[in-house]
Amino acid sequence: MEVVCRDRAPFFAEGATAGAPQAVQVADRWHLWHNLSEAAERCVADHRGCLRVLASDPAQPAPELEKFEDPSGSPWPRGHRFADRTRANHATVHELLAAGLSRRAIGRQLRMTSRTVKLFADAATPEDLFRGQWQGWPSKLDAFKPYLDDRWNQGCTNAWAVWEEIVPLGYQGSYQRVRAYFREKRTSPNPITARPPSPRVVAGWILRRPETLPEIDHLRLKAVLVHCPELDALTTHVRSFAQMLTERQGERLAEWLDAVRRDDLPNLHTLAAGIERDRDAVIAGLTLPWNSGVVEGHVNRIKMLKRQMFGRAGFALLRKRVLLAS
Fold first, then answer.
1. Residues 13-22: contacts with CB under 8 Å, at least 24 apart
2. pLDDT for 103
Protein backbone atom coordinates (compact mmCIF):
# COMPACT_ATOMS: atom_id res chain seq x y z
CA MET A 1 0.00 0.00 0.00
CA GLU A 2 1.52 3.28 -1.14
CA VAL A 3 -1.16 5.96 -0.59
CA VAL A 4 -3.90 6.36 2.03
CA CYS A 5 -6.45 9.08 1.27
CA ARG A 6 -8.43 9.96 4.37
CA ASP A 7 -10.49 12.44 6.32
CA ARG A 8 -8.67 14.72 8.78
CA ALA A 9 -10.08 13.12 11.94
CA PRO A 10 -7.24 12.05 14.32
CA PHE A 11 -8.40 8.43 14.57
CA PHE A 12 -8.17 8.06 10.78
CA ALA A 13 -4.56 9.27 10.93
CA GLU A 14 -3.80 6.86 13.79
CA GLY A 15 -5.38 3.94 11.96
CA ALA A 16 -3.52 4.70 8.72
CA THR A 17 -0.22 5.04 10.58
CA ALA A 18 -0.72 1.76 12.44
CA GLY A 19 -1.97 -0.21 9.42
CA ALA A 20 0.30 1.17 6.70
CA PRO A 21 3.23 3.12 8.20
CA GLN A 22 5.03 3.11 4.85
CA ALA A 23 2.13 4.78 2.95
CA VAL A 24 1.81 8.48 2.14
CA GLN A 25 -1.23 9.93 3.90
CA VAL A 26 -3.29 12.37 1.81
CA ALA A 27 -5.99 14.63 3.29
CA ASP A 28 -9.06 14.58 1.06
CA ARG A 29 -9.60 17.92 -0.69
CA TRP A 30 -13.39 17.89 -0.32
CA HIS A 31 -13.04 17.60 3.46
CA LEU A 32 -10.46 20.40 3.50
CA TRP A 33 -12.87 22.69 1.66
CA HIS A 34 -15.75 21.59 3.90
CA ASN A 35 -13.72 22.44 7.02
CA LEU A 36 -12.88 25.85 5.58
CA SER A 37 -16.57 26.44 4.72
CA GLU A 38 -17.66 25.75 8.30
CA ALA A 39 -14.94 28.03 9.70
CA ALA A 40 -15.90 30.79 7.24
CA GLU A 41 -19.57 30.61 8.26
CA ARG A 42 -18.62 30.91 11.94
CA CYS A 43 -16.44 33.93 11.14
CA VAL A 44 -19.34 35.62 9.33
CA ALA A 45 -21.65 34.83 12.26
CA ASP A 46 -19.21 36.57 14.62
CA HIS A 47 -19.60 39.73 12.49
CA ARG A 48 -23.32 39.47 11.79
CA GLY A 49 -23.72 43.09 12.87
CA CYS A 50 -21.83 44.18 9.75
CA LEU A 51 -24.54 42.57 7.60
CA ARG A 52 -27.09 45.19 8.67
CA VAL A 53 -25.63 47.53 6.08
CA LEU A 54 -27.70 45.56 3.54
CA ALA A 55 -30.94 45.95 5.48
CA SER A 56 -31.40 49.72 5.36
CA ASP A 57 -29.89 52.95 4.10
CA PRO A 58 -27.11 53.92 6.57
CA ALA A 59 -27.61 57.60 5.74
CA GLN A 60 -31.25 57.42 6.80
CA PRO A 61 -31.54 55.09 9.82
CA ALA A 62 -35.10 54.04 10.44
CA PRO A 63 -36.35 54.49 14.00
CA GLU A 64 -37.65 51.49 15.87
CA LEU A 65 -41.41 51.78 15.61
CA GLU A 66 -44.17 49.44 16.57
CA LYS A 67 -45.04 46.91 13.94
CA PHE A 68 -48.34 47.59 12.19
CA GLU A 69 -50.92 44.95 12.97
CA ASP A 70 -54.29 44.22 11.52
CA PRO A 71 -57.08 45.42 13.88
CA SER A 72 -58.43 41.87 14.03
CA GLY A 73 -55.15 40.64 15.48
CA SER A 74 -54.72 38.24 12.55
CA PRO A 75 -51.34 37.69 10.88
CA TRP A 76 -53.20 37.67 7.55
CA PRO A 77 -55.09 40.79 6.40
CA ARG A 78 -58.64 40.83 5.12
CA GLY A 79 -58.74 40.26 1.39
CA HIS A 80 -56.00 37.62 1.42
CA ARG A 81 -57.31 34.64 -0.55
CA PHE A 82 -55.99 31.95 1.77
CA ALA A 83 -57.07 33.82 4.89
CA ASP A 84 -60.60 34.49 3.66
CA ARG A 85 -61.09 30.86 2.59
CA THR A 86 -59.80 29.61 5.93
CA ARG A 87 -62.10 31.93 7.88
CA ALA A 88 -65.12 30.87 5.82
CA ASN A 89 -64.40 27.15 6.25
CA HIS A 90 -63.78 27.58 9.97
CA ALA A 91 -67.11 29.38 10.43
CA THR A 92 -68.99 26.76 8.39
CA VAL A 93 -67.54 23.81 10.33
CA HIS A 94 -68.36 25.38 13.70
CA GLU A 95 -71.91 26.25 12.56
CA LEU A 96 -72.50 22.63 11.54
CA LEU A 97 -71.05 21.38 14.82
CA ALA A 98 -73.36 23.69 16.72
CA ALA A 99 -76.28 22.32 14.68
CA GLY A 100 -75.50 18.82 15.99
CA LEU A 101 -73.80 17.23 12.98
CA SER A 102 -70.96 14.78 13.57
CA ARG A 103 -67.48 15.40 12.20
CA ARG A 104 -67.89 12.53 9.75
CA ALA A 105 -71.13 14.04 8.43
CA ILE A 106 -69.48 17.44 8.11
CA GLY A 107 -66.63 15.88 6.13
CA ARG A 108 -69.10 14.26 3.72
CA GLN A 109 -71.11 17.45 3.32
CA LEU A 110 -68.12 19.77 2.78
CA ARG A 111 -66.02 17.14 0.99
CA MET A 112 -63.20 17.43 3.49
CA THR A 113 -60.99 14.72 4.93
CA SER A 114 -61.45 13.78 8.58
CA ARG A 115 -58.08 15.35 9.39
CA THR A 116 -59.09 18.69 7.83
CA VAL A 117 -62.40 18.72 9.71
CA LYS A 118 -60.53 17.98 12.94
CA LEU A 119 -58.15 20.90 12.34
CA PHE A 120 -61.04 23.35 11.86
CA ALA A 121 -63.04 21.91 14.74
CA ASP A 122 -60.17 22.01 17.23
CA ALA A 123 -59.20 25.61 16.36
CA ALA A 124 -61.01 28.11 18.59
CA THR A 125 -60.40 30.91 16.07
CA PRO A 126 -59.31 30.84 12.42
CA GLU A 127 -56.15 32.74 13.40
CA ASP A 128 -54.98 29.62 15.24
CA LEU A 129 -54.57 27.99 11.82
CA PHE A 130 -52.29 30.73 10.45
CA ARG A 131 -48.96 29.31 11.50
CA GLY A 132 -46.09 27.09 10.45
CA GLN A 133 -45.46 26.68 6.75
CA TRP A 134 -47.92 29.44 5.81
CA GLN A 135 -45.70 32.15 7.25
CA GLY A 136 -42.20 33.29 6.33
CA TRP A 137 -41.91 31.58 2.96
CA PRO A 138 -38.84 32.78 1.04
CA SER A 139 -39.51 34.83 -2.08
CA LYS A 140 -37.55 35.28 -5.29
CA LEU A 141 -37.61 39.00 -4.47
CA ASP A 142 -35.80 38.66 -1.11
CA ALA A 143 -32.30 38.94 -2.57
CA PHE A 144 -33.25 42.13 -4.45
CA LYS A 145 -35.09 43.95 -1.66
CA PRO A 146 -31.99 45.92 -0.54
CA TYR A 147 -31.65 47.20 -4.12
CA LEU A 148 -35.35 48.14 -4.16
CA ASP A 149 -34.94 49.92 -0.82
CA ASP A 150 -32.01 51.93 -2.20
CA ARG A 151 -33.98 52.95 -5.31
CA TRP A 152 -36.98 53.87 -3.15
CA ASN A 153 -34.78 56.04 -0.91
CA GLN A 154 -33.37 57.68 -4.06
CA GLY A 155 -36.90 58.72 -5.04
CA CYS A 156 -37.67 56.06 -7.67
CA THR A 157 -41.15 54.80 -6.75
CA ASN A 158 -42.06 53.41 -10.18
CA ALA A 159 -42.33 49.63 -9.73
CA TRP A 160 -42.18 48.93 -13.46
CA ALA A 161 -38.96 50.91 -13.91
CA VAL A 162 -37.27 49.16 -11.00
CA TRP A 163 -38.49 45.76 -12.23
CA GLU A 164 -36.81 46.45 -15.57
CA GLU A 165 -33.61 47.30 -13.69
CA ILE A 166 -33.41 44.10 -11.62
CA VAL A 167 -34.27 41.65 -14.41
CA PRO A 168 -30.77 42.03 -15.99
CA LEU A 169 -29.32 41.51 -12.49
CA GLY A 170 -30.83 38.01 -12.33
CA TYR A 171 -34.36 38.50 -10.97
CA GLN A 172 -36.63 35.75 -12.33
CA GLY A 173 -39.85 36.62 -10.55
CA SER A 174 -42.88 38.51 -11.76
CA TYR A 175 -43.51 42.25 -11.93
CA GLN A 176 -46.47 41.77 -9.58
CA ARG A 177 -44.13 40.93 -6.68
CA VAL A 178 -42.23 44.19 -7.16
CA ARG A 179 -45.47 46.14 -7.43
CA ALA A 180 -46.81 44.53 -4.23
CA TYR A 181 -43.59 45.37 -2.35
CA PHE A 182 -43.80 49.02 -3.42
CA ARG A 183 -47.50 49.15 -2.58
CA GLU A 184 -46.67 47.88 0.92
CA LYS A 185 -44.12 50.67 1.25
CA ARG A 186 -46.71 53.28 0.25
CA THR A 187 -49.47 52.05 2.57
CA SER A 188 -47.47 51.03 5.64
CA PRO A 189 -47.14 53.68 8.40
CA ASN A 190 -43.61 52.38 9.17
CA PRO A 191 -40.59 52.11 6.85
CA ILE A 192 -40.42 48.77 5.03
CA THR A 193 -36.88 47.45 4.62
CA ALA A 194 -35.39 44.09 3.74
CA ARG A 195 -33.94 41.82 6.38
CA PRO A 196 -30.16 41.43 6.40
CA PRO A 197 -28.94 38.16 4.85
CA SER A 198 -28.05 35.28 7.13
CA PRO A 199 -24.40 34.41 7.87
CA ARG A 200 -24.80 31.22 5.83
CA VAL A 201 -25.91 33.20 2.77
CA VAL A 202 -23.00 35.64 3.04
CA ALA A 203 -20.56 32.76 3.62
CA GLY A 204 -21.93 31.22 0.43
CA TRP A 205 -21.13 34.43 -1.47
CA ILE A 206 -17.56 34.33 -0.13
CA LEU A 207 -17.06 30.65 -0.93
CA ARG A 208 -18.36 30.78 -4.50
CA ARG A 209 -16.18 31.53 -7.49
CA PRO A 210 -16.37 35.32 -8.03
CA GLU A 211 -17.11 34.90 -11.74
CA THR A 212 -20.16 32.70 -11.03
CA LEU A 213 -21.69 35.05 -8.43
CA PRO A 214 -24.80 36.90 -9.75
CA GLU A 215 -24.29 40.63 -10.17
CA ILE A 216 -26.77 41.54 -7.42
CA ASP A 217 -25.01 39.25 -4.91
CA HIS A 218 -21.63 40.56 -6.00
CA LEU A 219 -22.74 44.13 -5.24
CA ARG A 220 -24.16 43.13 -1.86
CA LEU A 221 -20.99 41.26 -0.90
CA LYS A 222 -18.91 44.26 -1.94
CA ALA A 223 -20.99 46.50 0.34
CA VAL A 224 -20.40 44.15 3.29
CA LEU A 225 -16.65 43.90 2.70
CA VAL A 226 -16.29 47.69 2.48
CA HIS A 227 -17.84 48.05 5.96
CA CYS A 228 -16.08 45.07 7.60
CA PRO A 229 -12.28 44.69 7.29
CA GLU A 230 -12.37 41.29 9.04
CA LEU A 231 -14.74 39.80 6.47
CA ASP A 232 -12.66 41.38 3.72
CA ALA A 233 -9.61 39.57 5.10
CA LEU A 234 -11.64 36.35 5.39
CA THR A 235 -12.60 36.60 1.72
CA THR A 236 -8.93 37.03 0.75
CA HIS A 237 -7.91 33.93 2.75
CA VAL A 238 -10.76 31.80 1.37
CA ARG A 239 -9.98 32.65 -2.24
CA SER A 240 -6.26 32.13 -1.69
CA PHE A 241 -6.96 28.68 -0.24
CA ALA A 242 -9.29 27.90 -3.14
CA GLN A 243 -6.50 28.73 -5.57
CA MET A 244 -4.10 26.45 -3.69
CA LEU A 245 -6.65 23.64 -3.74
CA THR A 246 -7.67 23.85 -7.40
CA GLU A 247 -4.19 24.49 -8.80
CA ARG A 248 -2.39 21.99 -6.48
CA GLN A 249 -0.08 24.55 -4.88
CA GLY A 250 0.57 22.79 -1.59
CA GLU A 251 3.94 24.51 -1.20
CA ARG A 252 2.04 27.76 -0.41
CA LEU A 253 0.37 26.32 2.70
CA ALA A 254 2.96 27.69 5.18
CA GLU A 255 2.57 31.17 3.69
CA TRP A 256 -1.23 30.89 3.93
CA LEU A 257 -1.10 29.80 7.58
CA ASP A 258 1.14 32.75 8.47
CA ALA A 259 -1.24 35.18 6.73
CA VAL A 260 -4.23 33.75 8.63
CA ARG A 261 -2.53 34.14 12.01
CA ARG A 262 -1.90 37.84 11.36
CA ASP A 263 -5.63 38.66 11.17
CA ASP A 264 -8.21 38.80 13.97
CA LEU A 265 -10.24 35.76 12.89
CA PRO A 266 -10.38 33.31 15.85
CA ASN A 267 -12.39 30.64 14.01
CA LEU A 268 -9.91 30.64 11.16
CA HIS A 269 -7.09 30.40 13.72
CA THR A 270 -8.71 27.21 15.05
CA LEU A 271 -8.78 25.76 11.54
CA ALA A 272 -5.14 26.76 10.99
CA ALA A 273 -4.11 25.02 14.24
CA GLY A 274 -5.84 21.81 13.12
CA ILE A 275 -4.17 21.98 9.72
CA GLU A 276 -0.79 22.56 11.38
CA ARG A 277 -1.19 19.33 13.39
CA ASP A 278 -1.92 17.41 10.18
CA ARG A 279 0.41 19.48 8.00
CA ASP A 280 2.11 16.72 5.96
CA ALA A 281 -1.21 15.10 4.94
CA VAL A 282 -2.74 18.48 4.05
CA ILE A 283 0.25 19.44 1.89
CA ALA A 284 -0.02 16.06 0.16
CA GLY A 285 -3.74 16.66 -0.40
CA LEU A 286 -3.06 20.07 -1.94
CA THR A 287 -0.30 18.67 -4.14
CA LEU A 288 -1.04 15.07 -5.19
CA PRO A 289 -3.93 14.04 -7.49
CA TRP A 290 -5.45 11.50 -5.06
CA ASN A 291 -8.85 12.05 -3.38
CA SER A 292 -11.60 10.06 -1.67
CA GLY A 293 -14.23 10.61 -4.36
CA VAL A 294 -14.55 6.97 -5.42
CA VAL A 295 -14.71 5.75 -1.83
CA GLU A 296 -17.35 8.35 -0.91
CA GLY A 297 -19.42 7.14 -3.86
CA HIS A 298 -19.33 3.58 -2.51
CA VAL A 299 -20.26 4.81 0.97
CA ASN A 300 -23.28 6.70 -0.38
CA ARG A 301 -24.40 3.64 -2.35
CA ILE A 302 -24.17 1.40 0.72
CA LYS A 303 -26.10 3.95 2.80
CA MET A 304 -28.81 4.02 0.13
CA LEU A 305 -29.13 0.21 0.28
CA LYS A 306 -29.21 0.30 4.08
CA ARG A 307 -31.97 2.93 4.18
CA GLN A 308 -34.08 0.98 1.72
CA MET A 309 -34.09 -1.91 4.20
CA PHE A 310 -34.16 0.04 7.47
CA GLY A 311 -36.25 -1.78 10.08
CA ARG A 312 -37.20 -4.58 7.69
CA ALA A 313 -34.09 -6.78 7.33
CA GLY A 314 -30.93 -7.82 9.11
CA PHE A 315 -27.23 -7.55 8.45
CA ALA A 316 -27.04 -10.81 6.48
CA LEU A 317 -29.37 -9.54 3.76
CA LEU A 318 -27.67 -6.14 3.72
CA ARG A 319 -24.28 -7.85 3.23
CA LYS A 320 -25.64 -9.94 0.39
CA ARG A 321 -27.15 -6.91 -1.39
CA VAL A 322 -23.94 -4.92 -1.05
CA LEU A 323 -21.88 -7.79 -2.50
CA LEU A 324 -24.30 -8.35 -5.37
CA ALA A 325 -24.38 -4.63 -6.17
CA SER A 326 -20.57 -4.36 -6.27
1. 13/278, 13/281
2. 92
